[in-house]
Amino acid sequence: MREVAVVGLGYVGLTMAACLAARGIRTTGVDVDKEKLAMVERRTSPFYEPGLQDMLSESLRSGHLALTADCEEAVGRSELVFVTVGTPSNPDGSINLDQIKAACTNVGSALRKSPRYHLTVIRSTVTPGTTENVVKPLLESGSGKTCGSDFGLCVNPEFVSEGRAVDGTMNPGRIIIGEWDSQAGDILERFYAGFCDGKMPPVLRTTFANAELIKYANNAFLATRVSFINSLANLCERIPGADIELIAKGIGLDPRIGPLFLRAGLGWGGSCFPKDLRALVEFARAKGEGLPVIRSAYDVNEFQPLRAVRMAEHLIGSLRGKRVAVLGVSFKPETDDTREASGLVVIHGLLREGAEVTVYDPRALQNARAVHGEKVRYAQSALECIEGADCCIVVTEWDEFRKLTAEDFVKRMRIPSVVDGRRIYDPNLFKSKARFAAIGLA
Ligand code: UDX
Fold first, then answer.
1. 392 an active-site residue?
2. Cβ(34)–Cβ(74) under 8 Å?
3. What spatial distance separates the first Cα and last Cα of the chain, rounded to whole Å?
4. Candidates 156, 262, 272: which one to mutate for ligand 1, based on the most atoms within 8 Å of Cβ?
5. What is the pLDDT along the chain (442 residues), one digit of tens a residue?
6. If 0-12 CB within 10 Å is exposed, 13-18 middle and 19+ buried, where does residue 92 land?
7. Probe ligand 1: pick from 332, 334, 397, max atoms within 8 Å of CB?
8. CB-ligand 1 contact for 252 (6 Å cutoff)
9. Alpha carbons 78 and 66: distance in angstroms, whole number
10. Which residue's alpha carbon is nearest to atom 22 within ligand 1?
11. Which one of 147, 272, 385, 392 is the catalytic residue?
């Protein structure tokens, strides 16, 4: 199997590097952040991702995974280079390509020094046209070589979800290859055939621009589904006897719709949906297209977290001076990631209303502290968090919160009142014992 370099060790890159190494591929992970490299060298994952820590330790121990800050060195000895750097938002929402440009400049100079054919694969999420109009010229000018004849270039978006990134990387559900020419596409397809070892998923080969847009379309579609169900959840709250869970189940039985991504809640967050929707809308605006459906999905999501604050007020009146417990601050379970998490918005809204906030999350307290500092209290367990509280808001559907019973709340809270922002409790079990409100429930 060929040697591989992975440039950019964020969620996607580090998981990918560890997974490639675990399959016996000699992999070099590259990052400019020396502190992060040192941490990974010490066999510690810089973020929580189930299964990743063990995989990293094993890959480093076996020697299949090496780490360096020297991009040129890593690229020089690799036939395949995956670029997995971040593409954050500019203040106006458009995509920021600084990391892509820096990485491709380094890859370009490495190509200049190497006599061999290398394939560069853009795995970062980039707007249509970026690979052709930004990446390719940088690689060509940096290397003094020609794309196609001297080196290969592909776009290969990833679709892994945080919390399931290891499994998603080890067993990709599909492989999208945007290729400059068929030689490059063939090499990448063969690489995946070896990596997937007989369990090759569907492969779609296409142009750079199509592959780039598939990634945005994917995220925009899923985010729109969630905003769609959240809009209807808000309507359900005004219809006696209505319950969004049943509406979602009912429409999910239609095979044309399907059941996934129809869980109503306090909105979507994380490192992808918000920034990618912003980038897509801004990209389209510059092309003269409004994308009203996707813009609305984004707008719905802006207001969704604050519904929890309104529900808390509905249950216990003014929040001024009241003690509110917030369960969960990561943007979803099984991650410590709080980027654009609904929980941060909820906490902010509660503080604005004058509430005294206590937060608990099994993994994300450190990240929450980095945002809210000493403005809130941090509990060491869910039970400690709700102790003496006047209201509790469930923001993230961690399994350990599902296990709490109505009695747990009744015994510990000053006023037993629960806002279920993720529909993890059976309303019938809670309504008779506590003040109870839930997203999408009349
Ligand atoms: C997403 C995409 O799923 C993945 O393909 C892409 O590569 C990166 O972005 P991720 O951000 O890890 O992955 O999380 P995902 O599981 O998709 O959830 C995104 C957000 O939507 C979370 O805040 C989640 O709580 C919310 N969500 C999801 C809902 O509110 N309801 C649902 O039914 C599904």
1. no
2. no
3. 58
4. 272
5. 579 999 999 999 999 999 999 999 999 999 999 999 999 999 999 999 999 999 999 999 999 999 999 999 999 999 999 999 999 999 999 999 999 999 999 999 999 999 999 999 999 999 999 999 999 999 999 999 999 999 999 999 999 999 999 999 999 999 999 999 999 999 999 999 999 988 899 999 999 999 999 999 999 999 999 999 999 999 999 999 999 999 999 999 999 999 999 999 999 999 999 999 999 999 999 999 999 999 999 999 999 999 999 999 999 999 999 999 999 999 999 999 999 999 999 999 999 999 999 999 999 999 999 999 999 999 999 999 999 999 999 999 999 999 999 999 999 999 999 999 999 999 999 999 999 999 999 9
6. exposed
7. 332
8. no
9. 12
10. 268
11. 272
Domains of the chain: 4-209 (3.40.50.720), 217-442 (3.40.50.720)
CB 112 within 8 A of CB 142: yes
Residue nearest to atom 3 of ligand 1 (CA): 161
Q: Quick check: CB of 270 below 6 Å from ligand 1? A: yes
The residue nearest atom 27 of ligand 1, judged by CA position, is: 268
Atom of ligand 1 nearest to the CA of 270: 11
β-partners of residue 28 are 5, 66
**Cα–Cα dist 165/170, whole Å:** 8
Question: Which tokens belong to 183?
Answer: 């030689």
